[in-house]
Design a protein that fits this description.
heterodimer; A: about 110 residues; mainly beta; three-stranded antiparallel beta sheet; 9 strands; about 45% strand; globular; B: about 120 residues; seven-stranded mixed beta sheet; four-stranded antiparallel beta sheet
Amino acid sequence: QSVLTQPPSVSAAPGQKVTISCSGSSSNIGNNYVSWYQQRPGTAPKLLIYDNSKRPSGIPDRFSGSKSGTSATLGITGLQTGDEAEYYCGTWDSSVSAGLYVFGTGTKVTVL
Amino acid sequence: QLQLQESGPGLVKPSETLSLTCTVSGGSISSNSYYWGWIRQPPGKGLEWIGSIYYSGSTYYNPSLKSRVTIFVDTSKNQFSLKLSSVTAADTAVFYCARSPLRTFNEWYFDYWGQGTLVTVSS
């Protein structure tokens, strides 16, 4: 079981906006930077957001990230059919002595 | 353009050792700016970080897998490898290799990923 909790699914019509939450604790999100990954079916994950809100080169500004306390949020505006995918948050977790990188439970985005 | 490519057996017997290699092209694994890691994903499930290595050989492992995992680097071949011992059916997964920029742990993320390779543990 992941220490980062995401809603199993979200959906919206094309052109609309969706937000995906990632809930953690002071051992992870509360004191570390969050990244977000998009995984289309049958493909490898792709980095969308790092350092809570920064976008790598080539990622459209329709994707945005934010963090508040022990939760983070990914927003997708102007939803497109190509955005249908599983989305994962990720961060460092220091609840165990050596620490480890953890991913969220994943959220499936459906474009209606 | 950086590319990572996993390779290794697609079928491993229970109790044996799973061995995979990630070949890096379009960049040097000896760069002092990156860690190189392994992440797995059981069929239909989420992502799990296995561990990461720096080109010098420093390793960082998921505590839950540490007793069974070894990651090592071969700079002459621009490759890094994973060994996972005493595998069971629960280790069946798609295994990804990935790069993460050299930063403090609390700033980690994975910016380049291989396409992944499915390893099935079965007799």
